[in-house]
Amino acid sequence: MRDSFLLSDEVLKLQEKERYYIPNEIDLREKSDHDISRYLNEITDSVEVSSDNISDLVVFDKIRSFL
Fold it and tell me: Are the beta carbons of 62 and 24 closer than 8 angstroms?
């Protein structure tokens, strides 16, 4: 993932939400505040252990779900 990721490209792609696919997306609209906090804590804990964990697709997709 590291070699192919460009933030500017991802931001542009996000503008076309219908065509932007996130494989492990979390539908946050359906989640309670408690669930959202849990997801944020999982993301934070993972990245806190190692910043390289952002390249993990599940972690990355969770982050993209919040955008």
Answer: yes
- Using a CB cutoff of 8 Å and minimum separation of 24, what contacts does 14-22 make? 14/64, 14/67, 22/61, 22/64, 22/65
Provide CB contacts within 8 A for 47, sequence distance 6+: 53, 54, 59
pLDDT attached to residue 6: 79
Round to whole Å and give the CA distance between 44 and 57.
15
The full set of domain ranges for the chain reads 7-65
Instruction: Tell me which amino acid residue 32 is.
Output: S
Distance (Å, whole) CA 58 – CA 56: 6
Q: What's the pTM value of the predicted model, to 2 decimals?
A: 0.72
Distance CA 21, CA 48 (A): 26
